[in-house]
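Handout, section B. The chain below has 487 residues.
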Amino acid sequence: MGLIPFFGRSAPPRLVLLSNREPIEHRCGPDGDHVVTEPAGGMTAALQPAMAATGGTWIAWGSGPADFEVTDPAGRLLVPPDRPTYLLRRIALTEKEIEEYYLDIANRALWPLCHLQLNHFTFNPDSWKTYVAVNRRFAEAADEEIDGRRATVWIQDYHLALVAGLLPKARNVFVHQFWHIPWPPPDVLRALPSARALLRGILANDLLGFHTRRYVVNFFACVADLLPTAKTDEKRGIVRYRNHKTTVRHYPISIDVRAIQRLSARPDLVERSRELREQSAPPGGQLILGVDRADYTKGIPHRLAAFGRLLDQHPELQGRVSLVQIAVPSRSDIAEYKDLEREMEHRTTVINQRHGTPEWCPIVLIKENLDMPTLVAWYRAADICIVSPVQDGMNLVAKEYIAAQDGRNGVLLLSQFAGAAEEMEGALLINPYDEVSLARILHVALTMGRRERELRLKVMQRRLSTHTVQRWIHDIFSDVKKLRGRR
């Protein structure tokens, strides 16, 4: 599946993609050279195929310390460095903009609000003004890159919710946005003082995408509740507001399945996986794996508590099972995230002291950003992967784990509050808030027979083989083509 056929054999519209996070960062190496790193997270990896296929322009915040040492005066450079296929345009943000647009509004207001974590929600009206100003800067950069040509603008996520409404209106420009996190119900969205402004900005898009049908339902409910003059047709997925029509759809994001499978089958990765298992799993025992950003939405403390309860209830598991929790550092400038890191370390220490022996460490906590080959090696090594967010837009770790189970029979424990739960039929669904039930289901996974493991895994791998990131992009741009044609 490719992108170009969606636009016919004539010259395709120019693709201008906007996201807060950039696909690569530049840092200064020890010898003064420029080192390229990839920020953690699945979103940028999912978007790379679209940019590689179209050769468009990706506009993002230049967050690397040496980012602007390698660009032209406008912040542009060709990427990726080893095989340039598209243009990256970096936006420089001031310390004030980073604090107010990114930390205050995106991460202290919109992130907890959309994840239904109102105990973490705060709102600063002055920071909202900065959020509007930064969105305007992104819109102006996009307008410069379009330069009057026929174009498709693809906006990513909640950081840039107002960009569509700030772009100059042009019939030859199609604007669509994908919202990568959950969309809350009206009673939660009302907590945001600027909720109506947020909705008005989003409804300037021609097409709006969410991960699941449930988020689409929530969005329509919010529009009906907060913008009573809007005309909604939920059955057809259309909102008409201020003489503009927005089509709303759900597109479950996925991964590059074949790329993960190829990695997992590589002889060096197979050997690395064996070494990791030998180092971390008790001899003859089983290995449970958690892979998350260190974020309060990921349910890591609940997971650790449930594992401790499991060891309390089943002393026969002493020295027979280990949990490796990979917690990638995230947003350490925010107090709630520092508190989470301390809580993870405390719970890990308490459980290890209570149950550990000189020969066996129940929990290994890894607090670093690992590259994809290393993660795939861990996925191969694990008998069980536990994905237990208290709320998550999709969660690609669940899909990566299943794709990496080459010749293995891993069991996936998946939170019912993750978008992936609507797709991964063979997973054991869990409620991260119910530590008693979570401990019980962990025991079910540990004692599950080989035949049931195989059947559950095959169900998930079969679906994943056809629901790839390529299909995600294909479905979105198929609708873009249809909607452009109708307009």
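Note. The chain has 16 helices and 18 strands. Compare this with the example in section A.
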